[in-house]
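Re: that backbone. Tokens:
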């Protein structure tokens, strides 16, 4: 039957046939793409929202870790300062030594100077200078210092006993311990 159609009409029919076939295939591909998009859109949206929430949680965790590092640094600094305060509390204070010496000072003794020096292991020997009215008051002062539990040794030069009255003295005291009981 196709043989009965003229070649010009046959060309038009063949062209129209292929246009229709291509149109149908394009329509089917469009419908398939739309169906695939419709089926793949919800999982895509779900995965995207989960990724966003995980990123937000990761940022929040990073912020907490950063705050934790800052807090840890602050705690380390505070701990070091507390350790220094505790060490300072346990260290023998110069005022405690002066208080002990003031208790011992008699009426015939006038203390004019204290020389203190702190070393790594505690307090270096303390020098106490002043004036004693008599030899007996100076000797009593030395004996009273030796009786103190804080003082282990008293070095009083013999030249201090050369004068009978208004004796200028410089006593060197060795302190018993550089730390007090906590």
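Recovered sequence:
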């Amino acid at each position: 039957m196709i043989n009965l159609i003229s070649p010009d009409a046959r060309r038009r029919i063949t062209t129209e046939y292929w246009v229709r076939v291509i149109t149908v295939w394009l329509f089917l591909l469009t419908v398939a793409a739309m169906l695939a998009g419709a089926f793949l859109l919800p999982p895509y949206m779900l995965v995207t929202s989960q990724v966003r929430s995980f990123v937000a949680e990761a940022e929040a965790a990073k912020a907490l870790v950063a705050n934790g590092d800052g807090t840890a640094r602050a705690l380390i600094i505070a701990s070091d300062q507390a350790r220094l305060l505790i060490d300072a509390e346990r260290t023998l204070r110069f005022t405690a030594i002066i208080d002990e010496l003031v208790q011992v000072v008699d009426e015939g003794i006038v203390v004019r100077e204290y020389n203190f020096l702190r070393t790594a292991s505690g307090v270096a020997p303390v020098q106490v200078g002043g004036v004693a009215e008599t030899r007996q008051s100076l000797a009593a002062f030395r004996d009273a210092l030796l009786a103190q539990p804080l003082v282990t040794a008293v070095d009083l030069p013999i030249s201090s006993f050369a004068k009978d009255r208004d004796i200028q003295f410089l006593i060197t005291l060795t302190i018993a311990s550089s730390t007090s009981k906590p």
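The CA atoms of residues 41 and 169 lie 100 Å apart. The first strand starts at residue 109 and ends at 115.
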